[in-house]
Target: Lipoate-protein ligase A-like protein
Amino acid sequence: MLLFIKDKPRNAAMNMAIDEVIFDNLQDDAVLRIYLWDKAYTTIGYFQKNEAEATRRLTGGLLVNHKNDVSYGFCANAQSWQHIYNQEDTYKYIHTAIKKALKALGYNSNFAQVTSQKQTLCVQTLYTDDLMYNGKKILGSCMRRRGKKILVQGSVHLQLEDAAIEKFAAEFAKNLAEILDTNFKEIKLTDAHLQKAKAIAEEKYLNDSWNKKF
Model:
């Protein structure tokens, strides 16, 4: 089963903390959370030097500016996600699910051509299976693996209306469930999830000891 959460707009600390709570408490079922941002934020990859007032992610990757993008967190273990030790395949299959979801909205995106030129900003750096639309990168993802489970985070940089976001989220969940060869079920975050996330946000993602650690 793929558990699917369509979340409301939140601040950067809570968005990162909720993904971490889901990751830490992952059971047998894979979990996909689609989420938004309540205003503009910047996140950076785990190993990046923080040269801005940015929130450090648990995952890797580069600096990402958030505001109107639609973001996702995907958690799975080796039992449900057979590509757990293959980062390229993980991105390829997730991005294919997103590509199909965007096509259902009328956006015909394409996979990027790889470049060796690496920038600081994620949307200026192209990797295999990133998505392009009208000559611009609109999707990249980053990953953290712990043992036999992964957390993948990414953002679709298109400004979608509410109805389009709802359709995109449902299509993404459906497509990802097909890749997992399972069904999906929409669920809500529990009070326990949110209480744990609030504590982690305050102790970690709002704290310079985490955000400025490098």
Q: What stands out?
A: The chain is about 30% helix and 30% strand. The longest strand covers residues 136-146. The chain has a mean pLDDT of 94. The chain has one domain: 2-211.
